[in-house]
Each structure stands twice: as structure tokens, then as C-alpha cells.
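Entry: Aspartate-semialdehyde dehydrogenase
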Amino acid sequence: MDTKLKVGVIGATGMVGQRFVTLLADHPWFEVAVVAASPHSAGKTYEEAVSGRWKLDEPIPENVKNLVLLDAADIEAVTSQVDFVFSAVDMSKDEIRKIEEEYAKTETPVVSNNSAHRWTPDVPMIIPEINPEHAEVIKYQRERLGTKRGFIAVKPNCSIQSYTPALTAWQKFEPTQVVATTYQAISGAGKTLEDAPEIMGNVIPYIPGEEEKSEMEPLKIWGHVDDDKKEIVPAESTVITSQTLRVPVLYGHTAAAFVNFKQNPSKEDLIEALESYSGVPQELGLPSAPKQFIQYMTDDFRPQVRYDINFEHGMGVSVGRLRTDKIFDWKFVGLSHNTLRGAAGGAVLCAELLTSQGYIEAK
């Protein structure tokens, strides 16, 4: 790409927004031109606004420090300076749906980390290695919005990426029933361990809304674009039930999953399917794509957050402990980085995919 696309990050001061600006600091295709947040932060430099609440180990990027924050609600001011935006705003779901559509209607594509539009039927929810073809629904969304260039695309829930890639690699064996319990890091709530003393030495057995997302979002990802309905129709062949727990870990969502199959795969079949699985991002060599999407680990004590969370710079998924079960056919453990693959990194990869497909381009 000869000229970098200009990007706005709305909701730039929160943990996911911070992750966006660090990932984009040296990106070969994109450069941060605008940072925006709440009216409280507007008018401050980015460095001033995040002073005392910078949550990442990486320093604030030099090219963003002195950018003056705009009010995310001042849509004209933001969109006049960018080719597209990443959304990480912290609002109610109704407010997010409204503001993201308002951005899209200015002919500005929106790639969102938020959950508000995940079940809007004509909004693609993309894991680039799994369902890149869902971008085809954008033409119908543009019809509804009355746009030629603007649209909304979203990435899915962070925790499902610890087990959905494995289940996708095994689709040819026809998984019918899945039990998935996820052990989710505190950064999934936008906090550090210091921000959440209640988690130390503790496990919290409920994360509002997460179980519904865990059970339903993979079905939309495995669904198809219905040209008659002009929407994505979720798959129905797999039933998923889930429990979600918050654990005293900073980064990394771990899943313990049990699976029944219609077919009868061997352990060797399942491992080979994991290790050979790749998608369009690998074929195209997209900048944020892991070379190996899924790794299988033979050590019974892996994957572990401490050692494996940064596999492929946090963009790969680790699977281990694949074994037969007394009730289900097979069981396994999966691990993914929740703020990289599961949040900002996944959204950046999605934007790279949409750029390569021609949906995002310079204004």
C-alpha cells in the first residue's frame, strides 16, 4: 500500500482503545489521525487524558501522545479527517448502536470492538480466518443505511476465540453438542489486577451477558449470507452450552470444552485438522495475521497463560489436553489472548481483511 489509510479511534482512552493505538503505532497500512473519547477528555492531549490510567505495559506511542482528543459525539469533526474508524466506545448498547450507525452514514466505515451490533442481521461479525465471506452482507447493510461507502463490521466476543477456532477446524467431523466453560482474565472487564482487588485469590462465577454470547455467537460465525433475506442466517447444527468465570489473571481466556461429533474422528485426525487449519489472512499475508493460526501442544500442562498467551504475538490460538471423555466424545483446553486476538488485534486484522477485499479505501 503506497499511502497509509487515516484511522480514527473512538473510545481511545479505555483499555481497548489504548490497545488500538499501540497496535497501530507502526502499522504498515494504517496510521492514527484522530483520537476521540468522552466530552470529559476532549481538548486534552492523549498523554494528558490517559495520565494515571494507562493500563498497558507498552509505553504510549510517540505519534499519538500529542494528538488532541476530540469529542466522539462530534462525528463531523472526526470523520472529516479519517478514512475509517475503530470503535471502542463505552456507552449503553442503544447509544453504541446509534452512534456507530451515525458514523457509517457519513460514508465512514466502522470496525467495532463493541457487542452492540453483533446481532444486527446485516452486520458481519468476523473472525478473518473463519468467515471472511460474511463481508458480502455489507452490500445489503449499505442498502438499508443508504450509503455507498459506509458500513459497520464487528469482531466477536473475546472468550469464544479460545474454542471456536478449534471447533471450526473440526467442522468436517460435524460437531453436534458442545459444553464450553471459560476462565476469563480481568482485562476482559477493562481492568488490571490492581483495579480489581476483589478478584485476587478469588473466582467470580458470573460475567453478565457472557454465557449468552458464548452459546450464540459461534452460530452466527458459522452461518451464511442469505441473499433473499439480505442478512446472515446463523447455523443450527451445533448446540453450545456455556459457563463463564472471572479469574485472577491479567490477560488470557482459557476454555475447557467437551464435544460430541456426528462423525468418528481419531485423535490424530483432530490434531492434524488443527495444525493444518489456515484462512484468507494467511493466504494474503495480512500484516497482523499469525503465520500459524492454531497450535496443538502435547504437554499435558499446556497451554498455560504464563507461557503461551503471546503465541504468534498474541494472535494465535493454543490447544492442548485433547482426550476422550466418558460422556462426550472428546474434550480439550483452549487459550487465546483476549485483548489481542480477542479484541483490538482481532479488529485490526478484520480491517486489514476488509481493506484487502476493497470495502475500506481512502476517501
